[in-house]
Amino acid sequence: MQMNRPRRNIHREKVAVGDWQTTVKRLWQYLAASRKNLVIVFFLTLITTAVTIVGTRINGIVIDRYITHHQLQTLLLVCAIMAGVYVIASVAVYFQNSLMITVAQNTSATIRQDVFENLQHQPMRYFDTHDNGDVMSRLTNDVDNINSALMQTFVQLFTGIISIIGMGAAMIWLSPVLFAITLLATVATYLFSRGVARLTQRAFMTQQTALGSLNTQIEESVSGKQVVQLFNHLDATQQNFDVTNRQYTHAAFIAQALSSIIGPFNNMTNNVAYVLITAVGAASILGHVGSITVGVIFTFLIYLRNFTGPINNLLDLINTLQLSLVSAQRVFELIDAPREVDLPDAVAVTHTEGAVAFDHVSFAYEDTRMILHDIDLQATPGAVVALVGPTGAGKTTIMNLLTNLYPLAQGRVLLDDRDVTTIKRANLRHLITVVQQESYLFSLSIRENIRLGRPDAPDVEVEQAAIAANAHTFITQLPDGYDTMLSENASALSIGQRQLLSIARAFVTQAPILVLDEATAAIDSNTEALIHVAMSKLMQGKTSFVIAHRLSTIQAADLILVIDQGRVVERGTHQELLAKNGFYAKLYNAQFDN
Amino acid sequence: MFAIIMHHTHGRARWAFFLAPLIMLGEVSCDLQQPTLMSQIIDIGLAHGDGQYVLHHALLMLMFAILGLACGATCGTLGSYASLKMGESLRSEMLQIALSTRDAAGLKPATLITRITNDVTQMQNLVMMVTRGMVRAPMLLLGGIVMSTIVCPNLAPILFVIMPILVIFILIVMRRSLPLYTNMQAAVDRVNRGMRENLQGAKTIKSYVLEDHQFALFKQANLNLQTTSVQAAMATVTLAPVIQLLLNLGVVIALSYGGSLAIHGSISDGQIIAFVNYMIQITTAMIQTANIITAFSRAITSAARVQAVLDEKPSDAMATALRPKASEIQFDHVTFGFDQSTPILNDVSFTVADGHSLGIVGPTGAGKTTLINLLTRSFDDYDGTIRIGGVDIQQLPLEAVHDKVKVALQDAILFAGTIASNLSFGGAASPQALQTAAEMAAATEFIDPLPQQFEAPVEQRGKNFSGGQRQRLNLARAFTNDPDIVVLDDATSAVDQNTNAQIKARLAQARQHQTTVIISQRVTNVIDCDEIIVLEAGKITARGDSDTVYQTSPFYRQLVDTQLGGGRHANE
After folding, report:
1. Taking a contact as any Cβ pair under 8 Å apart, which residues of chain B between 152 and 181 contact chain A?
2. Which of A173, A269, A551, B391 is the most buried (most CB within 10 A)?
3. In terms of CATH, what superfamily is A438-510?
């Protein structure tokens, strides 16, 4: 039987472009935590903007009144006041930016934390069907995009809104005609930017998706580097990567080229408005129409810079915002992925007799093709149950169901006559220690890795466990002994040594039910013999499930289930099964015949 | 950093990189015309009531505005092109280096991945900014200074005092922020590692209910990233307000001093207006420059991290075009260890004649896998000599060694693709060759029922196959195209007895023309080998055929007795 599952598809689903309001709302919820800081930033922005408006107006007045009318003393006095105001404004800018940095970083940290936390509670299926590289890309690149958008956006948004209102009012006050011209230019800029933004949205989504698959490839080939080298597959891997790399570059180029028009276009409309105002102003002075003076034109032009400046910034921000909204959507997908939740009436069980039963259990991954058919088994408290059978028969899958890692298609798994799905997962898993064939070791010290299952276990127990698992000798030979920090998945240790550490881990954990899934496959049988005694002791009084290919390790089992193609084909004790002269006997004899 | 950028912008990208700033010059000079033209309109056109003059200059201003747009858009596109092409080339080379360096003690995957992705993005952003802003801002700045000096030489000294102060200030801020960005990128590495472990170790985490434990660790790393990011950003946060303050004070001085000069009639109103306008332009440009400098600080850190990857060159200097014909393996007094006092391999010597087989047994951690790593040249810094076909492997190109020796590692790493793409990993293979290899590895029994057979999809790391199935594909990959030397490093540990027996029988047939090295925990896999060596704590403690070793090695005797039962050894 093979376990081929349908290609992953969940994360490839195209996000509906257009659902931006929800995304913005979600982002806002994150920002709400920093509401107080944002209010302060708003008021600081109010100060700085007011200073800009008033300062500019004073510049004009200075020229029109004092310089033209030769009032030197008043001029100097006004200038001194202005200097003071500018100092206040700069202090305000400093605090405004500092606060925004804090807000942005707090928000990103919270988002990262939420992503991580939600991923922690994803069902096993999620990890089977998602590429690590893409998930990583969302956590780093996409959160980064949100962060830089937040840093830039808020101050400019506030400044923008306040300036636009303030400057607008001042401009109307100064000259309604000139303001009308300005407004025209602004509307043109806005319409253009919006048009481009629609296009860039889509392009950015393509870009970030391409970045995700790029990361997936980097992740895969870097982690599988040794095999790539051993098989001289460097060139092919490189060529594959280069294709994806080029696809990303292409997608990013389209997105960026589109968005790079926005800035210069705004700059142009800005300049056009500048020209029009100069021209109209000049015309009205020459024609003696209205009340426009040279000072008015001067002030108005500076207002114009301060009016269109923030508007341009805002429109420029559309880029950053587009990208960050796309990113936010990708990140929220991770945060929203439905968790593995306990049933509402799930009970906390902290003790078990150890009676385990599978009651007509069938199982399939999402597709309809059954992986396990009608599995039936009863393990009395303290019994040792062995599962044997060819590779891919479904042995590990059966054990995965015991710890409720996947939902069943049919039947029930019972612990002390209680359906395991009605037990809180954390409780259930605390009652069962699983030693996998490839248990993961984390980048912690060896000591911490061994006591992962019971972090409060004293050092003495850790060492006793290591001695029992025959790992003590090699651990003490390491430069830092038990305090040796393991690198990612302990790549410096041999697979056998890693297995010894996982066995030591099981010794410390001391749960009432034990699952050994090929736990000693990479350990030589002499070492295995050495730890065998300790293992028997470990299994004493515990209900144990043993998956092993070495039949010597399962002969003593109280019950042996022979699994083939997802079915139990034979069951009984070693002697009974030999006597049957069936599948098991064939397996057993194969060990010696050749 | 500039060297990296230069080295990775080729052809059109190189043109774009240099052309973009030039075109930006166009946009900037267009922008710079505006205040001058305007001051002329006021001073000349309005003063003389010359409508024609005003119109003419207004049209000129309009023309420059449109020309500016054309230049700006072109520059932006070229800048994107240059920066993205640089990123593409950089990622490609970094991956190549990451894949071809042998030293397992080098950079760890998590940091390598961050460097290839995140750090390259930082550099890409910088190039983007350099092509657009690094010219625009300094040009507006320089242009502003020059024009204001020309328009109003009397007020220019104000700038000549302010600008040096600003430059020194910026330099100080930059120097302070650099180490902080280095801390920040290191924190990014840690967060990534936490995430990676969480993804890879998902099942272990669930089984041991480590969610809270891992979350607490991640929170620490995350907090660390938050703190270092804030520190780095805070280091540069003074830039904008200080620049703004100094230049605003400059405006005030220009007005008061310029005003008094105007009152005495030595300069005109128009001159003051233009000067103040230029000052505002200079302020904007300075702040933009400051932003670029912030990005620069971050990019310098990233560039250093990228450079560290680029520096990891594979040391294949001794390589010649030699290709050994024969397939004899010889270890000649090989000693190897990471530290001198405890060698992993201690004076190991053996010869496997062409077409012969060697079985290696020994306790966990005895150095068996290290031996294979030396044979495939994962490490070169051992004492003694290793030869293939009589040639010192250090004289051979890596590729020749890997062509000759096919290894099935204990850890069955598969790649996303199809079964066929995985099996033909070592080179193109005919359907017939795939079939033969799969048969030898007893993999056909699960490949055949698959709807797409050899074209069936394999997911990342082979997640959609069971441990035993992965090992069999791993084996088949080594068998594909009938290599001269096959090394099996405990490659059937997860395969059941029956299947193992099938594989063994098929291997025995092939062995007639193949040199084979088998490391196994299973006695049955090595018992028929021409020679068996027992490796204990890095030393060969026994050698010979199975019977001899059974007599001389307590380890082997015990292995045989426990696995085959006391009376089952062929000798008894």
Report:
1. none
2. A269
3. P-loop containing nucleotide triphosphate hydrolases (3.40.50.300)
